[in-house]
Design brief:
Length: about 230
């Protein structure tokens, strides 16, 4: 049996490859966010598109169902796809998210959206840096954060019918804490999931997209939670 290629790699070489992998992850995440933001801005500034999407209450529901189906499909099957297919599905998902995100321009002022985005970017960056550099094993955070995530999802669904303001704010602040924690946790898990020695391959690209999707979701959800707190309504 031939020794694994990584057995010949020094710690510095391993760290350098992990760093290059994380750069690719962040690049894909940024591409997804740019697609989402660009589509949301374009739609919000195109009245016929806004009427098409939000003039019929069924259309937003269909878009949300399509988003949910697409993100579950990508998350569960990305490593079974070709690299080009994984890329296409990721960008398509980001674009669909942009269509529904255009609604926030109807609800919040552009200035508050911009300021919230900057706060989100700073918070996300700090926690992702912590997750990447810390020597502490964050594995134990996983089950706690997952349970918290399930809790706020259930509470959010129930509150659609209750319309309780106290529940709304508890979910919002808990959501901020959970997605801040998930940013650090996911960053560390993504760093560790990189298969050393396959840099530049299709598998490497799919791993980067898989990681980018997780961080993209953390960023988007953290932004939405902070927008509830910081956003100035029109």
């Amino acid at each position: 049996m031939q020794p694994n290629r990584t057995s010949y790699m020094s710690q510095d070489a391993i760290a350098a490859e992990q760093q290059r992998f994380m750069v690719r992850v962040y690049n894909w995440m940024t591409a997804g966010l740019a697609m989402t933001g660009g589509v949301a801005w374009l739609v919000s500034n195109t009245e016929p598109l806004m009427k098409l999407i939000f003039g019929n209450p069924i259309v937003p529901i269909v878009l949300i169902i399509a988003q949910i189906g697409l993100v579950f499909y990508l998350a569960s099957s990305v490593m079974k796809m070709s690299a080009s297919q994984a890329t296409g599905v990721f960008i398509l998902y980001a674009g669909l998210t942009g269509l529904t995100f255009s609604a926030i321009f109807m609800v919040y002022t552009a200035a508050s959206i911009t300021s919230t985005f900057l706060v989100t970017a700073g918070t996300f960056g700090a926690m992702s840096f912590y997750g990447y550099t810390t020597k502490k094993d964050l594995t134990s955070w996983g089950s706690f954060l997952f349970m918290g995530l399930i809790g706020i999802i259930i509470a959010s669904v129930v509150n659609i019918f209750l319309q309780n303001e106290a529940v709304y704010w508890v979910v919002t602040y808990a959501g901020v804490l959970i997605f801040v924690g998930l940013t650090a946790y996911d960053t560390q898990m993504i760093k560790q999931m990189n298969i050393l020695g396959n840099e530049g391959t299709d598998e490497d690209t799919k791993e980067a997209i898989q990681g980018a999707l997780k961080l993209y979701l953390d960023f988007i959800n953290l932004f939405l939670m902070l927008l509830r707190i910081m956003g100035d309504r029109r």
